[in-house]
Amino acid sequence: MAAILEGLRFQPGSSFIHRLDPRVKLLISSTLLITALLYSEITVVSIVIAAEALLSAASRTLRRWAKTVYGAIPLIILVFAMNYLFLSLQAGAFDDPEIIYRSFTASYRLIAFIASFSIFFLTTTPEELGMTFTKLRIPYIYSFALISAIRFTPVLAEELQAIMDAQRARGLELDKGGPITRVRRYVPILVPLIVNVLRRSYELAEAMEVKCFGASKKRTFLRELKMRPADYAALTITAICLALSVYVRLSITLAVP
Q1: Degrees, nearest 5: CA angle 152-153-154
Q2: CA triple 46-48-52, angle to 5 deg
């Protein structure tokens, strides 16, 4: 889980992707996600994942992106197993190649889903996120809640891992025993984690109160978003790709696996 959440943490850089307007990067990530949702063909999904890998390589965040995908392997295996079991029980057969293919496709598409917005969060600062949501007419109180969650979720994941390592060093065995025993052994982990969450919440609330959060309806930013020629070019290419993706899905029957 901590590895997956690494894809939500901004990684500083000066690449072309980093310099793009965050609204354009949001459209790029949305296009990748929509394409993965529209198509169940492995060939098309592979193209989407390859495009995500190329974008992460161009932004020099490939290692963090790959770590996010690697951390999702247990979830991908779980999705495959659940789909295979459900479809097999529904069909009354456990050796149907079509069921295996459909289960693999569902789990394979999950990689594209998870990785689609990873590039956006890895190359966009929290301040740019706030400005993007403001430009989209989203109330700042909602965007602030989302930005805070994005900021603190990877931190909490690291704290959870640190607490688990500390408890293991004290002799707590988390991987042994039955399901009920394992759940009980997680109590010494959840209690300090919840305490840390509450402590951070109080600190954040006090900081917001000191800075008079919400006193002014109109917010100002140190830097304003401004589209450059490169942004318009990337926006045009992305819009064309999105239109082609939707058109091909609705109008053409693909003959690819």
Answers
A1: 95
A2: 115
Q: Which two tokens stand for residue 168?
A: 């293991």
* Among the listed residues 217, 90, 207, 249, the one whose alpha carbon sits nearest the alpha carbon of residue 141: 217
Q: Which residues contact 33 (CB under 8 A, 6 or more apart)?
A: 112, 113, 116, 117
Torsion of CA 228, 232, 238, 241, to 10 degrees: -160
CA dihedral 51, 132, 61, 47 (to 10 degrees): -10
Domain ranges of the chain: 1-124+243-257, 126-226
Q: Cα 220 to the chain's mean position, in Å?
A: 28
Q: Is 66 exposed, middle or buried (0-12, 13-18, 19+ CB in 10 A)?
A: middle
pLDDT in the model for residue 189 = 84
Amino acid at 237: I
Q: Does residue 186 sit in helix, strand or coil?
A: coil
| 178-199 tens-digit pLDDT | 777 777 777 888 888 888 888 8
